[in-house]
Amino acid sequence: MPAYLVTLATLLVARAAPLNFILLSLAYLSNLTPLFGIPIAYPVLWSLAVEEHFYLVWPAIVRNISNRALIATCLLVIAASPFSRLLSFYLAQRHGWVSYKIFDYTWNCADGLACGALLSICLMHFSLSRTALWKIAATLSLMAIAIWTIALPFGILSQQKPVGAVLQMVPLNLIFVALLVAVLLLGSGPYRQWSRSPALEFFGYISYGLYLYHLMVFNAFQWLLAHGLIKRLDMDPLWALVIRFFAVGSVSVAIAYLSRKYFERPFLRLKARFA
């Protein structure tokens, strides 16, 4: 919460986002601002809004229904989300243009969350062998490839087409579940060092702040460049892009590390007292 509020305050002071967007973001409605006629001024906040909606609703569901009903709920959400995206697509198409922002609405991306929840339930309540889990990961990967291959001629690469609006995220969800299974298996087996490297742990440590801040840093660099405060170098555009990525990326990582260690961590220590 502190890092999130600092981000909103920075956007407000820098006039990088309008006040109405900031106020809705305070209530974690960043992904729904287009419904109020307000553009998503700082795109990275949309996924945090979806995340908070999940944290608000899912624990209450878990607390009140059985594991079998939870599995049925996950399967229902996974099946319903593509139809929700299709409905949103045709409603948006009536206005002449289908903005990708409609796919940021919580109900249009809930199937990814349901896939993760379903995996968690299966891992906790079924005695699946490691071999079975590897087979599940392989099967999900093959299913994703098959969907992409079959739907490719019908426009799955573009969310401006019905097939793309409905199915584009489905193979990605399958791939990410398979990847998560593989990482969990690697992290608990003889090759655990591949998933527990110091570099991965470091980026895991700063990941929240890095996600929040990185776009502001890149936007600040573009502002400095546009106002002549940073000199443009006469070089190949590709090399200029690479240099910018590593330079600004390094600054983003440094800010995220300092934020995590000296700003976020003191507040995190208070969780045991107030949570």
Describe the protein's architecture and organization.
Helix content is 71%, strand content 0%. The radius of gyration is 21 Å and the shape is globular. The protein contains eleven helices and no strands. The longest helix has 32 residues, at 237-268. The chain is mostly helical and 275 residues long. Helix 1 (2-13) packs antiparallel against helix 2, helix 1 runs parallel beside helix 9 and helix 6 (130-151) runs antiparallel to helix 8. The model has no long low-confidence stretch (mean pLDDT 91). It has three domains: 1-64, no CATH class; 70-93 and 103-191, no CATH class; 197-275, no CATH class.
Shape: globular
Q: Structural class, from secondary structure content?
A: mainly alpha
Radius of gyration: 21 Å
Binned, the helix content reads over 70%
Number of domains: 3
What's the pLDDT, averaged over the residues?
91
The total count of strands amounts to: 0
> What is the straight-line distance between the termini?
13 Å
Question: What sequence of helices (H) and strands (E) makes up the elements?
Answer: HHHHHHHHHHH
Poorly predicted segments:
none
Largest sheet: none
Q: Strand content of the residues, in percent?
A: under 5%
Number of DSSP helices?
A: 11
